């Protein structure tokens, strides 16, 4: 199996966890998914599936109506699908690359939601991949497009390029010093928005935030990417300076070491506590304060999420997940094993 993109520590990886480019497209000759019945959505899905599989044969087809609920939620936790898509509406499907770097939702809000994900800050590289797939698809089918409005989408806020470019940021120092709210006010004036890791209305658990473009109409893809790239680099620089200032103080440095101690000894961890402690350990790891590999922490941040953890347990012991208490014990066990002290 290929190494998953979210485990790697990419460009600007001390602050930027990942990059995502998402393109929304709709078929010109077919009503939006909200206006289709189940048979209509299945017909559109099969048509797009055939075209995509001829372009990228290694995509795995997943019928969302047949996918167990736990697996669907785990996909949402890993940002491969939207939380709404996990509901498995009749006729919806997912095409997923083995390394999970390409994810295509079929008949979600739009007929096609094509996502390319990369580790670290790789906006241009992710866009190039998405653009090649989009162009290849466009040669096989006509997309709904208006000369004045650009690509037509179910939600008017996506009109124009219908592109959402986003980066996932780990900002523990800016969060601890209370600067994120001021940061959010400033970047909103630049056509960007910063939210919790799972988008609008979500909490920034573990000091992880999603920064993305807001404007899709009247702006070229290249301009949107350049703007996001420049602001991301500025935020990364602010986080590094805030971290250096913060860790010079004995209190925050002690909290980082204590977090590692708790994670190496705890017998129960709920998901919120694990996210907060792993955030502190990651801060110490990227600033060379702790003897822990950043890639190890990245992997744990993904794998300790409730559904993903339960899914792994089910694979190990044949059970369909576990009760909350059992899951907390298994989460602690997983973290201890991954962060165990190196042998002398």
Q: How would you sum up this structure, described in words?
A:
With 344 residues, the protein is an alpha+beta fold. The chain has two domains: 5-243, 2-Layer Sandwich (Creatine Kinase, Chain A, domain 2); 250-338, no CATH class. The chain contains eleven helices and ten strands. The strands form two sheets. The chain has an eight-stranded antiparallel beta sheet. Helix 2 packs across helix 10, helix 7 (250-265) crosses helix 8 (271-286) and helix 8 packs antiparallel against helix 9. The longest helix is centred in the last third of the chain and has 26 residues, at 221-246. The chain starts with 15 loop residues before the first strand and ends in a 6-residue tail after the last helix. The model has no long low-confidence stretch (mean pLDDT 92).
Helix count, DSSP H or I runs of 4 or more residues: 11
Unreliable spans: none
Shape: globular
**What is the number of beta strands?**
10
What is the name of the CATH architecture of the largest domain? 2-Layer Sandwich
Quickly give the structural class.
alpha+beta
Q: In total, how many domains does the architecture comprise?
A: 2
Portion of residues within helices: 40-55%
Average of per-residue pLDDT values: 92
Write the layout of secondary structure elements.
Blueprint: E1 16-25, H1 38-55, E2 59-63, H2 69-77, E3 93-97, E4 102-106, E5 112-119, H3 123-138, E6 145-146, E7 150-151, E8 163-170, H4 172-176, H5 180-188, E9 192-196, E10 208-213, H6 221-246, H7 250-265, H8 271-286, H9 294-303, H10 306-317, H11 324-338
Antiparallel strand pairs: 1-5, 1-8, 2-3, 3-4, 4-5, 6-7, 8-10, 9-10
